[in-house]
Q: What sequence folds into this?
């Protein structure tokens, strides 16, 4: 269980939540034909195909973090720009939407996607909207990521490129798992070709261009010492 705290955008409010269950969505693009093409590309790199799409991976709740750094065991780890929902109570207004970044072990990913999801943290922003406050403009929120000290743009899309927060809330409800203490992050949008994802810094932004409000996160990637043995 992990304790997180969110500043609610548009309110003078802080909401604290103990994350008891954490889920990572995968292969969650709204265009599932493009998702299937991406799966074929990954298969050529040795990444095993999922048995169904979209996918949903339960991960250890302690991996939900609000932090300025990630410790990595080797050089082949990278983030993914995502949004996250956190259920902070029983009512519709208690569902929070924030920015997220799934830091994934790419070397382990070729042996099992679910394993790789449990090998790194899910980073979450410190600001969040009440999902109900956004109304119909949720899909229009812009999702971007930059890497390295030079802030090279690596991802740029919209929430609407992915299956919606409501889609996943419905899935959780069907599984009997839509309750306080549950967090879910969305799966990611495509990376810009030619940009090195194995960078020493990641920054992700979820931006409401209509109001100028945003939820952001940034962290450095720190290599752990070489093991003995």
A:
């Amino acid at each position: 269980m992990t304790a997180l705290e969110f500043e609610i955008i548009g309110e003078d409010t802080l909401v604290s939540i103990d994350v008891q269950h954490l889920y990572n969505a995968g292969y969650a693009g709204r265009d599932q034909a493009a998702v299937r093409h991406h799966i074929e590309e990954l298969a050529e790199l040795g990444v095993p195909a999922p048995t169904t799409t979209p996918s949903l991976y339960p991960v250890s709740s302690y991996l939900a973090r609000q932090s300025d750094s990630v410790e990595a065991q080797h050089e082949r780890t990278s983030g993914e720009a995502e949004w996250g929902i956190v259920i902070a109570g029983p009512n519709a207004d208690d569902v929070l939407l924030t920015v997220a970044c799934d830091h994934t072990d790419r070397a382990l990913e070729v042996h099992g996607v679910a394993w790789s999801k449990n090998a790194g943290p899910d980073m979450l922003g410190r600001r969040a909207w009440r999902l109900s406050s956004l109304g119909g403009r949720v899909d229009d929120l812009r999702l971007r990521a930059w890497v390295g000290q030079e802030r090279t743009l690596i991802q740029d899309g919209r929430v609407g490129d992915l299956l919606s927060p409501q889609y996943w809330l419905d899935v959780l409800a069907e599984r009997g798992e839509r309750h306080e203490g549950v967090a879910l992050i969305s799966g990611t949008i495509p990376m810009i070709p030619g940009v090195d994802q194995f960078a020493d810094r990641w920054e992700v932004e979820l931006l409401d261009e209509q109001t100028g409000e945003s939820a952001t996160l940034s962290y450095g990637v720190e290599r752990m010492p070489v093991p003995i043995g």
